[in-house]
Structures are given as structure tokens and as C-alpha cells.
């Protein structure tokens, strides 16, 4: 795994006065890890959306679960909750497991170009006319000029060429030349600098007056070239000392920074490895305490068999007499039976949880809006009347399964369900209405809560059957494994549409 530190929501955190939390994400089963510093006020849905955009995966294909560290949460993290709602404080460190639901892309159908294309073009006067373009199919295969594929949306683009020449750009700038005017006049002048001088020595025929000559003594002693070289050497040594000191201090700061970065990286790696090991340990403990999948129960059965084998070998090699050995074997058999009963109870509980989660995913799939991909890569989301009805039925089913409701709230939910199913007249809806009336009568009589368990379970199952019937919920057609025939379901159709043989009559 690669460790990367990213800060999300910093400006919002400063405005709200909140803090940030270090979150270590571990993608399972690949085992890749990444650390992010996230604003504590962000919700799980916002974090999941950011991760899906960063990983370039489809929407709703990432699941976040099993939070550990400062706060522990052993289920799928709900999207509507924020990090602050889990009890996380600023500066805490937590770990979260990520699982990606991969899907297989369906191959696109081959496109067949027609023999003629009708194009609508607009002339310079703004009039629209239809132009027919006849397609000439080449005898030889056209050369492949390359192209590319958009990995995010799956759209394929190919390079193409045409015979039309490219439009030449006109040079709109005017041509400019250098010019000279006739009134310009050139002149040449010379001058003498004040530093130019000369001397004149006496000679035959020339008398030089020396009456005004003065001997000048220098105020400072003569400074020779050797003295100048010595001063340059001394100053060069001083400059070299300062430069070397500056380079040494810069190198020392660089080494200290590298050491601090290395120590921080090692500490982060150790913390990440510890979090990953802790997540794996907690996952293994969770698999044994609350198994859910077939692999979890296989691990339990294998460990039980290994324990039984070791105990049997220990009893066989203990040297007990026949009576003590048989007593130890009976005790071992009793413990094994108890453990098998415990595993069976866990299997029943896991089956119920998996069934509830499967039903929830099915209802959410029916209530999701329709999504179409556009040519520019964007998507269009549309809620149809069928998806809206599926969403309403899902809400009613969730209301039926809610525990700890007051009598008034439960009666309100039952009344809405009764109004929904009474739109159809069949055996299924009549049975649902009968169960609703029976529960309402028991609620008015003040019966205890435990006496409603079987009745409410049967009512929920019948209403789920009502939701999964395409005649009542059109969105359920997509999830049908076998096509349904109208004449073969007398229990779900109005009596006016059922043939006589469908009612069991001769």
C-alpha cells in the first residue's frame, strides 16, 4: 500500500471552528492503504463521493464499513451520518475498510452505416434544407488512424481524415517597411577627454622652464601589486570561510529535515501497519463472533474440527483407564455438540440478517431513478412513475418492519398499507387487509408486544410478496427470474381477469 496525506474540507473546518481527523482507508481484499486528513463535519456520503471521483469508479460502487481506532463501528457506515455523529473528535485516528463492487461491461452492438444519409443544413439566408449524402462503401478496408477510449464513461473515439483542404488564414496585418526622410542630416563631431595629457622633454632648440616645478610627496606609502595580491588573498579566504559556513549550515538543515521526514514516514508506516493488523485482527474476531458468509462458517467448522482432533489425541495419549477415557470422550462429545448448536444459532441469525440486507438492496434497486449516458459524458437521471411507486412501497415496507412504535404510529402505518393494497382485489390483498384488521383489533385491546411477533412477520412477508409482484409494482419485472404468465397466478390478479380454471372450478 501507498501512504498519501490529503487534507479535505480545510476551509470549511476553519469557518465552522471544527477539527480534522486522520483516516486510514484500506481497500480489501487487495490490501492497499491510504491516509487522508478529513474535516470532522463531513458526512460519510460526501467522503464516499470524493473517493469514487478520485478512484474513477462508477457511482454507488464503493462501500465503507468496519470503522476502528478511536471509535469502533462494525457495520456498513450510513451515508447520512457525519464523522462527528460517531463520537470522533478532532485529532483522532481511525481506520475504515473499503470494498469496491466491480461490474462487467456489456459489449456494444456493431453499428451498420446506411447507404444514404439525410442531413439538415442551413444556408447563409437562414433557410434549412435537407441534403442527401450517398455513402460509397470502399472495396478495401480503411486504414486505422488510431483513437482513444474514455475510461470514465466508456466512450470510444476514432481519428478520421477528409479530402477537403484546410482553410488558409488571411494575414490581416498591413505590411510595414523602414523608411528615412530627406530632412534628416548626419554630422560627425570629435572631442578630447580631460584625462588626455602629454609631456614635453627639453631638447636642443627647446627650453623648458622649471621654475614652477614642485615635488609632490604621496600622503600614503606606495601600494604595490604584491600588497594588493596579499589583500585579495586575505579577503578571498574570509569570503570562502563565510561561503563554506553557509553551505555547511544549509547541508545540516537539509540533513535534519531528511531525518525528520524519514522518522515521520517510518512512524506513519508503523501506524498504518498497526492499524491494518488491528483491522485484520478485529475482522477475524468479528468473523468468529458474528459470522455472515459461507467462508466465515467454514472457518468456524475447521477450527472446531481442529480442536476436536487435538482433544481426541490428548485423551488417547493421556493414559487414562477405560472408564476415565470414555468419560472424557463423552465430555468432549457434549462440548462439541454445544459448539455445533451455537454455530447453528449463529447461522440462523446470519441467514436472517443476510435476508434483510438482500431485501433492502432489492427494494433500493427498484426505487433507483433511471440513468442515461449522454454523448458528452454526462448522465441524465429521471424518476418515472414506476420508480416513484417502488419508492413509496419501499417506505411502507420499512415502516412495517420498524420496531418500538407507539400505537398511533403503528395504526397510521397499517392504514397507509391498507389503502395501498385495497387498490387491487385478489386473494393476496384480501389476506393482507385481514391481517391488518386483526392487528389493529389486537392493538386496541392492549395486547402485549410479544404476541404480535408472528402476525407482523406474516404481514411483512405478504406485503413483500405484494411488492415483488409486477402487476402491483411494475419495477419488479426487471428482477423476475422467470417470466410471469397472467393466467397462471390466480392469487395475485383481480377476480374479473382470472379464468374459471384459475379459481379451481371445473
UniProtKB/TrEMBL annotation:
InterPro entries named in the record? IQUB, IQUB_helical
PROSITE patterns attached to this UniProt entry: IQ
Q: Which residues form the IQ motif and ubiquitin-like domain?
A: 353-485
| Domain of life of the native organism | Eukaryota
Q: Which residues form the signal peptide?
A: none
**PANTHER family per the UniProt record, alphabetical:** IQ AND UBIQUITIN-LIKE DOMAIN-CONTAINING PROTEIN
Name of the protein in question: IQ motif and ubiquitin-like domain-containing protein
State the species of origin. Answer: Zooxanthella nutricula
Amino acid at each position: 500500500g501507498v501512504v498519501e496525506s490529503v487534507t479535505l474540507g480545510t476551509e470549511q473546518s476553519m469557518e465552522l471552528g471544527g477539527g480534522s481527523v486522520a483516516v486510514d482507508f484500506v481497500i480489501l481484499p487487495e490490501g492497499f492503504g491510504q491516509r487522508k486528513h478529513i474535516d470532522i463535519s463531513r458526512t460519510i456520503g460526501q467522503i464516499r463521493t470524493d473517493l469514487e471521483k478520485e478512484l474513477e469508479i462508477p457511482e454507488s460502487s464503493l462501500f465503507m464499513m468496519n470503522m476502528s481506532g478511536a471509535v469502533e463501528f462494525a457495520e456498513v457506515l450510513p451515508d447520512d451520518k457525519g464523522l462527528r455523529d460517531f463520537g470522533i473528535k478532532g485529532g483522532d485516528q481511525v481506520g475504515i475498510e473499503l470494498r469496491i463492487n466491480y461490474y462487467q461491461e456489456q459489449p456494444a452492438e456493431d453499428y451498420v452505416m446506411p447507404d444514404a444519409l439525410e442531413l439538415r443544413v442551413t444556408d447563409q439566408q437562414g433557410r434549412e434544407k435537407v441534403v442527401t449524402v450517398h455513402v460509397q462503401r470502399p472495396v478495401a478496408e480503411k486504414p486505422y488512424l488510431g483513437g482513444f477510449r474514455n475510461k470514465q464513461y466508456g466512450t470510444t473515439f476514432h481519428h478520421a481524415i477528409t479530402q477537403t483542404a484546410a482553410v488558409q488564414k488571411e494575414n490581416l496585418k498591413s505590411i510595414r517597411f523602414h523608411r528615412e526622410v530627406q530632412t534628416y542630416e548626419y554630422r560627425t563631431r570629435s572631442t578630447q577627454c580631460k584625462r588626455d595629457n602629454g609631456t614635453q622633454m627639453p631638447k636642443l632648440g627647446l627650453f623648458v622652464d622649471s621654475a614652477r616645478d614642485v615635488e609632490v610627496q604621496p600622503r600614503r606609502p606606495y601600494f604595490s601589486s604584491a600588497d594588493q595580491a596579499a589583500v585579495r588573498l586575505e579577503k578571498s579566504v574570509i569570503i570562502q570561510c563565510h561561503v563554506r559556513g553557509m553551505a555547511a549550515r544549509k547541508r545540516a538543515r537539509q540533513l535534519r529535515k531528511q531525518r525528520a521526514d524519514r522518522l515521520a514516514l517510518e512512524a506513519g508506516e508503523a501506524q498504518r501497519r498497526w492499524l491494518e493488523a488491528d483491522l485484520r485482527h478485529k475482522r477475524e474476531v468479528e468473523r468468529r463472533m458474528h459470522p455472515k458468509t459461507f467462508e466465515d462458517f467454514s472457518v468456524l467448522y475447521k477450527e472446531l474440527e481442529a480442536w476436536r482432533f487435538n482433544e481426541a489425541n490428548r485423551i488417547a495419549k493421556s493414559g487414562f483407564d477405560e472408564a476415565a477415557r470414555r468419560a472424557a470422550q463423552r465430555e468432549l462429545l457434549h462440548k462439541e455438540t454445544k459448539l455445533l448448536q451455537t454455530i447453528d444459532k449463529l447461522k440462523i441469525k446470519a441467514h436472517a440478517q443476510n435476508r434483510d440486507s438482500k431485501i433492502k438492496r432489492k427494494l433500493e434497486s427498484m426505487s433507483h431513478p433511471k440513468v442515461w449516458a449522454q454523448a458528452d459524458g454526462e448522465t441524465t437521471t429521471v424518476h418515472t412513475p414506476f420508480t416513484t411507486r417502488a419508492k413509496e412501497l419501499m417506505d411502507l415496507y420499512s415502516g412495517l418492519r420498524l420496531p418500538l412504535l407507539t400505537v398511533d404510529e403503528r395504526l397510521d402505518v397499517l392504514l397507509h398499507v391498507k389503502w395501498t393494497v385495497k387498490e387491487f382485489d385478489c386473494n393476496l390483498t384480501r389476506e393482507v387487509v385481514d391481517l391488518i384488521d386483526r392487528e389493529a383489533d389486537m392493538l386496541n385491546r392492549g395486547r402485549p408486544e410479544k404476541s404480535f411477533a408472528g402476525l407482523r412477520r406474516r404481514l411483512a412477508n405478504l406485503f413483500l410478496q405484494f411488492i415483488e409482484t409486477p402487476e402491483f409494482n411494475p419495477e419488479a419485472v426487471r428482477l423476475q427470474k422467470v417470466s410471469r404468465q397472467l393466467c397462471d397466478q390466480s392469487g395475485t390478479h383481480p377476480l374479473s381477469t382470472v379464468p374459471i380454471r384459475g379459481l379451481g372450478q371445473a
